[in-house]
Amino acid sequence: MMIMEKQIVFDYNAEKPSFIDLRQKIDRACRRLGLDKEESLHVQIAVDEACTNVVRHAYKNNGGKIRIELRPLNKKLKIVIKDWGNPFQKDYQAASKPHQVIQTKKTGGLGIFTIKKLMNEVKYYRRKNHNELVLTKIRKIKNA
Q: Domain Histidine kinase/HSP90-like ATPase: where (predicted)?
């Protein structure tokens, strides 16, 4: 973990067991950045789901690198998840219709839906040589 002008960066191997430690680090970082317990939990779940998708889809369970950047911006926390795997193929609009996933009777498939419900904004970009998933969480402001 490194801190750069309040930005917190985690580099991880794209392997599912490493996410337990990641969730704990995300929680500590979120608390340090002023998020409450519920907001921190939302970020942890969203990051875990996104990283699980990277392992399964971008790297096809063959390993790789994931970078998670937490960027506090006034009332917002931007979480940027980068990987250097295959481009994301799913339609984000279709992913917001869980009844279609449930009707297929397969396990999984609710990750993007869950992420969208927990975050205020979700955007995906394919950059020149990597994928970026940008999650935004609007932080609750405590009364002064």
A: 22-137
**What are the φ and ψ backbone dihedral angles of 140, each rounded to 5 degrees?**
-70, 140
Is 144 part of any domain? no
Asked if the structure places residue 45 within a domain, the reply is yes
Q: What is the CATH number of the domain that holds 13?
A: 3.30.565.10
At residue 47's C-alpha, the angle toward residues 3 and 66, to 5°, is 65
For the entire predicted model, the pTM comes to 0.84
Q: What is the pLDDT along the chain (144 residues), one digit of tens a residue?
A: 544 448 899 999 888 766 888 899 999 999 998 899 999 999 999 999 999 999 988 998 898 999 999 999 888 999 999 999 999 876 554 555 656 556 565 556 688 889 999 999 999 999 999 999 999 999 886 543
Contact 49, 102 (CB under 8 A): no
